[in-house]
Amino acid sequence: MNTKIVGQSIPRIDAKGKVTGETRYSGDIVMDGMLHMKILFSGKPHARVISIDTSAAKAVQGVEAVYTAQDVPVNEYGLQINDQPVLCGPGSSIPDADIVRFVGDQVAVVVAETEAIAARAVKLIKIEFEELPVLTDPEEAIKPGAFSIHPKISVSNICVHDRIRKGDVEAGFAQADVIVEGEYRVPAQEHAYLQPEAGIAYVDENGLVTVKAAGQWTHADQKQIAHSLGLPLEKVRVQYPAIGGAFGGREDMSVQIVLALAAMKLNKPVKIVWSRKESLIGHAKRHPMVIRARWGATKAGKLTACETTFIADGGAYMYTSNKVLGNATITQTGPYAIPNVKSDVYGVYTNNLPSAAFRGFGAPQAQFMAEMQMSKLAEKLGLDPVEFRLRNALQPGDTLDVQSPPPGPVTAVEVIEAAAQRAGWEKIAGQWQNNRAPVQNLDDKPWLAHGIGLAAGFKNIGFSFGYKENSWARVEIFGNGMIEKVIVYNAAAEVGQGNHTILAQMAAEAIGVTMSIVEMVTMDTLDMGNAGSASASRLTFMSGNAVKGAALQARAKWDAEEHPAMVEYTYLAPETTPFDKETGKCMPNFAYSYVAQVAELEVDTDTGQIHILKIISADDVGTAINPTQVEGQIEGGVVQAQGYVMMENFITKGGYVLTDQLSTYLIPTIRDIPDVVESVVIEIPDDRGPWGAKGLGELPYLSLAPAIISAVHAATGVWFDEFPLTPERVLRGLGKIR
Questions:
Q1: What is the predicted pLDDT for the residue at 441?
Q2: Which of 701, 560, 690 has the alpha carbon at shortest distance from 644?
Q3: Is the bond leading into 724 cis (omega within 30 degrees of zero)?
Q4: Do 108 and 256 fall into the same domain?
């Protein structure tokens, strides 16, 4: 029997249920005696809650309970640090929990017999606020004399400061023949997952407070819920139903703790479903940043020095700013060798919505700057952008800005060459050039300007900076003489990326059976070890290695006549080290993947509209466990990144959200996406990954913004250092409007 399953495009195991509507998401769950919850947001960017009058809400017929800060046993939470109240208001168990720091801070919850009753009652809650001054500009927030948003945490409002000091930057600039300086502004971005925040909580027959809501890391959710409720960890169970997208936005809590609080107090099932408006206000966004850069290179096209300053808006609470900005720090030089680097990366508390994880995790912002600097240097040197990149691309033995070599296969050259060749570049007389680059204008449509641009990037696989990366799995083999059933236990979150399908493929391959007898038991803290988060492009590598290890050992037991055969296995990744506080020197990661992308487009110089003709994305995935899923990830990442650079315009003013619905915050639809997305799958196995595989989810996002903006420059001669490239911004850049 042919059991070669890894490398095959097996249909997704969750596909049928999702396309037929049989699969239940958090908002689909109904239980007997279920109550409904509505949350009252602060609606204030910065204020002290003097008093909360809930009497009118409690008097509404059908209202079961109203909870405020005084009802939360341990009124604090946070994925990195406990700097956010569960509910803001007086009477809290935690000092300073009476201050709201952004408009989406939660102040009270109403639990009622119906959603309509809860919605009516929540409007009757009366709050007396003492307005406090508001800081929404991170550059203003770190000036001397600015008030502190979290005085017990950071007097300066700086929540993160990472430093890089590699080589001698001034000597590097002295060696440079060309120096390019730039200031780049990258915007916030809304995750816009299909399924808004929703969930249900109840106390089960064993007395466990059980929460069913979409997330990205069951065990981290469990820990935060248990902490806030003052319960032992083993008294809380977190279970994920089907998840309608995440992209990093579900790493942090939204509805889980207040649902668990109400279920625990009432001993009844409690459900909530956020509206899209509540979702847009209530959860974090991609980090907006101001990045100032100065890069130097010689006439021979070799980089000599890089000096940068990042000022990132962390918003009201830490969330994952420390980790996101750490990742921006290590990827800011792009996939290039630069001998001298000086950088200061700041995360700043403001009264804006918190900033958090989003696909790429700081690398898209950092590498936008890096690739813009590379393209501008190439232009100033008179070098082809591909040729210039290849002269500086990381090679084995080169060091990153953190003074350590990139681990594993270093494939920057391979992905750049693959993307360039597909787009028409050739190596002629020893140098790369594109002889088929489109002309600026069509004779019959002179208002359409054509351009092509290329950019590259790289991204870590797995958690960084000394975290002991691990993932647990259990595999059980059953049968009477022959193998009849395989059960795989792994808590990894399936957020739409296809992880459970490839884990089933890996288990089947390792044991030597067909997929039809493999059963997956997933996304639960009960009787399962920690699989880690669905983030950092880590699950293929980490949970894949865990399942492979358990499956191989279980098969060995089976072959030794141990029936049934059961094995628990925890995979431990190679060790990493944290930043040196003064220089940034470290070995931050155990694996990287590389990407290069080409954008070909036309700009309507009369309207400012940009039409993407073709995107080529060359992605190093190590080994494609499921090639069709790889292509799906590439296409999805490209479209999401296209929205980021071209149309998604999240607007706030004074801490208030102006684009609070999808009619004002626009994301790409079928009419906006590229005409063609060409996936170039590069397979250079990493021998530490399962069957050589590495992570992919973030790769196709990383370098699309600079590729598109370089193509717009090729078409129009104008550099855009800020996006999204709305028609208004394009026309302003072209000098057509003021």
A1: 55
A2: 701
A3: yes
A4: yes
The answer, yes or no, to whether residue 549 has pLDDT greater than 60, is: yes
Neighbours of 253 (CB within 10 A): 24
Please indicate whether residue 579 or residue 445 has the higher confidence score (pLDDT): 579
Long-range contacts of 22-26 (CB under 8 A, 24+ apart): 23/242, 24/241, 24/242, 25/195, 25/198, 25/214, 25/241, 25/242, 25/243, 25/244, 26/195, 26/198, 26/199, 26/200, 26/212, 26/213, 26/214, 26/241, 26/273
SS3 for 664-695 is CCCCCCCCCCCCEEEEEEECCCCCCCHHHCCC
Q: Is the pLDDT of residue 303 over 90?
A: yes
> Is the domain of 302 the same as that of 419?
yes
Q: Which residues contact 154 (CB under 8 A, 6 or more apart)?
A: 148, 349
Residue 170: inside a domain:
no
pLDDT of residue 439: 52
Reference 606, options 714, 683, 716; nearest CA is: 716
Cis peptide before 241 (omega within 30 of 0): no
Q: What is the CATH number of the domain that holds 202?
A: 3.90.1170.50
Helix axes 385-392, 363-381, angle to 10 degrees: 110
The one-letter amino acid at 394: L
Final residue in a domain of this structure, among 547, 572, 597: 572
Contacts with 422 (C-beta within 8 Å, 6 or more apart), sequence order: 598, 616, 618, 678, 680
Kindly indicate the confidence band of residue 3, based on its pLDDT and cuts at 50, 70 and 90: low
CA distance 253 to 77: 8
Torsion, Cα 573 323 685 428, to 10 degrees, reads -150
Residues 74 and 91 in one domain: yes
**What average pLDDT does the chain have?**
96
Residues pairing with 310 in the sheet? 291, 345
Is the same domain home to 399 and 250? no
* CA atoms of 16 and 21, how far apart (whole Å): 8
DSSP state of 55: H
CB 661, CB 655: distance < 8 Å? no
- Gyration radius of the chain's alpha carbons: 26
Mean pLDDT, rounded, for 677-687? 98
What pLDDT score was predicted for residue 1? 42
Single residue among 273, 308, 325 that ends a domain in this structure: 273
Tell me if residue 727 falls in helix, strand or coil.
helix
Task: Sheet containing 470-478: give its strands across.
Answer: 518-522, 485-490, 470-478, 565-572
- CA distances, 624 to each of 262, 416, 460, 563, 614 (Å): 45, 19, 17, 33, 23
Instruction: Grade residue 2 by pLDDT with cuts at 50, 70 and 90.
Output: very low
Picking from 80, 61, 58, the residue whose alpha carbon sits closest to that of residue 71 is: 58
Summarize pLDDT for 479-488 with one digit per residue, the tens: 998 999 999 9
pLDDT, one tens digit per residue, over 268-283 is: 999 999 999 999 999 9
Check if the beta carbon of residue 354 is closer than 8 Å to that of residue 317.
yes
* 450 in Cβ contact with 602 (< 8 Å): yes
* 3-state SS assignment for residue 455: strand
CA distance 447 to 560: 74
- In degrees to the nearest 10, what's the CA dihedral of 14, 16, 21, 23? -30
Place of tokens 């647990």: 472
